[in-house]
Amino acid sequence: MGLEATPASTRRAPRRRPGAPRSLVIASTAVLLFLLLWQAAPPLGLVNGNYTSQPTLIFLAAVEVFRGDQLGHHTWISFSEFFLGFALAFAVSIPLGLLLGVSRTARYLLDPPLMALYIAPSLILLPIMIIWLGIGIASKIAVVFLGVIFPIIVNTMAGMHEADANLVRAARSFGAGPVDIFLRILIPGALPSILLGIRLGVGRGVLGVVVGELYVSQAGLGYQMTTYGSSMRIDRLLVYVLIISFFGYALTSFVRWLEGRVRNWKPA
Q1: CA dist 57 to 108, 165, 209, 236, Å?
Q2: Of the candidates 54, 39, 215, which has an alpha carbon nearest to the alpha carbon of residue 126?
Q3: Which residue, 40, 150, 158, 193, could crosslink 118 as a Cys pair with Cβ 3.0–4.6 Å?
Q4: Which CATH number covers residue 154?
């Protein structure tokens, strides 16, 4: 008896062999090539090593920094400034953004000044914040607050406006009240936009901390960058740059992961 052909619908697709994703391999290769080129550029005379350092020297400087540079103290100062400013901005921006998203009167009253402040770089207010609040932690918290609050407000408003009108009408036809529509349709539909605003706010908040400490401070990661930059210790300066970059990348990656988790909550 001859072999019968297996239906195409019942054939199993060949399993792919486990391994690293192609994008990860490409990204790792690009980073490795960049580091090799960076390491070789100063000896070859392509760049001035006094201003660019080398990966091996930065690694040795990182060992010194982690061993005895009061890294924990300066990191705690910068992280405290960031998280306090971010928490205050989050507590204010979410309710305000939801209010502006549902109330036309509130938008008429608050939208023009908020948009004017949003367009203006928050860092230009840093000298005023220092005059008002001093050179301590309060002025840095204020700069982070101003940098974070506006992206969250704007994106929360946009998310509330993106609610499906047909879904709202269907809910009303089944007897849903304004509170039910707000809690079950508008807020879930606005979550992706809210998280996008949070992700944008993270970047602006980290920038606010660093620039505030670069401008005037007595401790913190930005203060260390200023110290090593003025003494031309480029290797240690770049160590602190990498620490701040890793911190910002980790936070934005976490928020991006949350965006993927709540994307299904948005009404189709």
Answers
A1: 56, 59, 27, 9
A2: 215
A3: 150
A4: 1.10.3720.10
Residue 58 CB neighbours (<10 A): 21
In a domain, 101, yes or no: yes
The first and second tokens of residue 252, run together, are 């934005």
Which pLDDT does position 179 carry in this prediction?
67
Is there a contact between 213 and 78 (Cβ–Cβ < 8 Å)? yes
Round to whole Å and give the CA distance between 175 and 173: 5
**For residues 7 and 19, what is the distance between their CA atoms, to the nearest angstrom?**
30
Q: How many residues in total does the chain contain?
A: 268
Q: Residue 199: which of 157, 250, 145, 245 has the closest Cα?
A: 250
Alpha carbon distance 31, 14 (integer Å): 32
Whole-number pLDDT of residue 166 = 67
Query: What one-letter code names the amino acid at 160?
Result: M
Q: What is the pLDDT of residues 19-46, one digit of tens each?
A: 457 777 887 888 889 888 888 888 887 7
Q: Which domain holds residue 76?
A: 59-265
